Amino acid sequence: PALIIDFAVLADYALFDQQGKLSVIGIFRHVVVGGFPAMHPRTHLVLRVRGRRTEVGAHTLRIRFTDPEGHELVGGEGTVQFGEPPAGVVDVEAGAVLVFDVPLPRPGPYAFEITLDGELAGRVPLTAAFAQQ
């Protein structure tokens, strides 16, 4: 594929500073809740996409949050924009921080599916479980 996902993680918080550096706090793959259905608020999906210099421009990005059966619970679509890199740099990269309130109807395995230009490019798993009393 022309574009690849360097990394994709779930975190409590993430931001880009004014120099474009990414800071990520509280990376996780599992949530424990007191009961179901539950909502995990302000879940940050953090990703960085990389490609060759020929990929400069806009590319379609689609996110689907799916339940254990693969049904979409939350989704969104947008674009990722690659600017012209400095002379001598052959790769282009772009980062994104997407924030979701994630519905968790029952315990089990969930996932964020990431599609770039219509092709599945990555999956970020999330497991939801009951808190042990």
What does this entry look like structurally?
The N and C termini lie far apart (47 Å). The protein has no helices and nine strands. The protein has 133 residues and is an all-beta fold. Helices cover 0% and strands 72% of the residues. Strand 8 and strand 9 form a beta hairpin. Strands 3-9-8-5-6 form a five-stranded mixed beta sheet, with no helix packed on it. The model has no long low-confidence stretch (mean pLDDT 92).
What labels describe this entry?
single chain, 133 residues, mainly beta, five-stranded mixed beta sheet, four-stranded antiparallel beta sheet, 9 strands, 72% strand
For the sheet with most strands, the description reads: 5 strands, mixed
Question: End-to-end distance, in Å?
Answer: 47 Å
Order of strands in the sheet with most strands: 3-9-8-5-6
| Global outline | elongated
List the SSEs and their pairings.
Layout: E1 3-16, E2 22-28, E3 30-33, E4 38-52, E5 57-66, E6 72-82, E7 91-104, E8 108-116, E9 119-130
Parallel strand pairs: 3-9
Antiparallel strand pairs: 1-2, 1-4, 4-7, 5-6, 5-8, 8-9
